[in-house]
């Protein structure tokens, strides 16, 4: 939107978190508003946990359309909302808030962003068996949404750290709320991980292992664990081709990175705020090449 187009009717919303200056979200949402002729703007606000409550109150009172949250605000924000979606409740984090006339409703579109990016690769999650590496924020979002979308069995694999216990709690929550069978395995137990992978259709890396600058690292030490027929997906998109993807490609396996998870989580947030479809092809062409 050009400055001259901002009027007394223009609504705003944006991203809260810290840091936020690097985010692609303002570019993708503002291009979408402009393209669809929606009188709104999206800005980024560097807000840590201490100022979050006050900022959320301001966003509610100023009749914004809503906002996104990034680290470190995704959990803390739940204290200030009026309603939480099923997926966000199970994940335990909110990345998108809709302001419905002063009533704040929390959603999590990271998980749908991931499952949409999987579908886009022609992979139908229904009835499939998935091994998910990691138990952090991104892993929890992907795990919950895959279970809600009909994955038959989900094997969460994390190293033995304090998050291992959290992973067990998550597995328990998902098992109680969906028909997906969920178990948790120690990443250090290579023979167990090998046998999980042998029975899986999809491997999802949601650890940060392999992310820049540590691009020579892979969460899978022995590539012979990656057997034929397995699809390998990495949530990392910096670099675009991770060491894990390289290992999988050398074994002839299909791979994809986390680039389009980012795009589709934004598209889902845009739909919640506007009821319209983001012009995904245009946004992809402009910012995701
Ligand atoms: P996080 O909450 O910090 O979780 C990191 C995960 O990686 C944890 O399970 C952690 O295990 C594991 N991990 C870290 N170092 C490890 C190591 N040396 N060996 C084994 N496991 C290790 O981070 P996050 O927000 O979930 O993000 C995880 C990855 O997803 C990042 O690379 C991020 O860039 C990517 N991501 C992508 C998108 C997207 O839109 N594509 C969105 C969000 C995140 P411990 O708990 O044991 O430390």
Tell me, briefly, the overall form: globular
Radius of gyration: 19 Å
Percent of residues in helices: 25-40%
Low-confidence stretches: none
Write the CATH fold name of the largest domain: Rossmann fold
Report the sheet with the most strands, covering strand number, pairing sense and barrel closure.
6 strands, mixed
Q: In total, how many beta strands?
A: 12
Number of helices in the DSSP assignment:
10
Small ligands present: NADP nicotinamide-adenine-dinucleotide phosphate
Rounded average pLDDT: 96
* Helix-strand category: alpha/beta
Strands of the biggest beta sheet: in what spatial order? Answer: 2-1-3-5-6-4
CATH class of the largest domain: Alpha Beta
Number of domains as seen in the coordinates: 2
Architecture overview:
- By secondary structure, this protein is an alpha/beta fold.
- The chain folds into two domains: 11-109 and 262-287, Rossmann fold; 122-253, NAD(P)-binding Rossmann-like Domain (Rossmann fold, 3-Layer(aba) Sandwich).
- Helices cover 38% and strands 20% of the residues.
- Strand 5 (96-100) and strand 6 (103-107) form a beta hairpin.
- NADP nicotinamide-adenine-dinucleotide phosphate binds at residues 110, 134-139, 158-159, 161, 163, 187, 206-209, 211, 219, 235-237, 258, 261-262, 265.
């Amino acid at each position: 939107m050009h400055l001259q187009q901002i009027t007394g009717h223009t609504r705003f919303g944006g991203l809260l978190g810290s840091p936020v200056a690097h985010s692609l979200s303002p570019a993708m949402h503002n291009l979408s508003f402009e393209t669809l002729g929606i009188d709104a703007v999206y800005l980024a606000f560097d807000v840590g946990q201490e100022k979050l409550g006050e900022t959320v109150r301001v966003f509610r009172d100023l009749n914004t359309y809503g906002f996104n949250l990034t680290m470190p605000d995704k959990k803390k924000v739940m204290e200030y909302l009026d309603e939480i979606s099923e997926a966000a409740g199970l994940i335990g984090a909110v990345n998108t808030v809709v302001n419905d006339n002063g009533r704040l409703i929390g959603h999590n579109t990271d998980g749908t962003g991931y499952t949409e990016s999987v579908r886009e690769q022609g992979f139908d999650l229904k009835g499939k068996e998935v091994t998910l590496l990691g138990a952090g924020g991104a892993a929890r979002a992907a795990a919950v949404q895959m279970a809600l979308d009909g994955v038959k069995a989900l094997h969460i694999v994390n190293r033995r750290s304090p998050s291992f216990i959290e992973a067990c709690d998550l597995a328990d929550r998902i098992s109680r709320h969906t028909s997906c069978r969920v178990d948790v395995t120690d990443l250090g137990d290579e023979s167990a991980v090998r046998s999980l992978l042998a029975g899986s259709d999809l491997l999802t890396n949601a650890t940060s292992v392999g992310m820049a600058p540590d691009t020579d690292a892979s969460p899978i030490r022995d590539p012979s664990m990656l057997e034929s027929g397995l699809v390998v997906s990495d949530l990392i998109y910096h670099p675009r081709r991770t060491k894990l993807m390289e290992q999988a490609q050398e074994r002839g396996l299909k791979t994809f990175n986390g680039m389009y998870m980012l795009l589709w989580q934004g598209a889902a947030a845009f739909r919640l705020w506007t009821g319209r479809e983001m012009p995904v092809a245009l946004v992809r062409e402009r910012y995701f090449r």
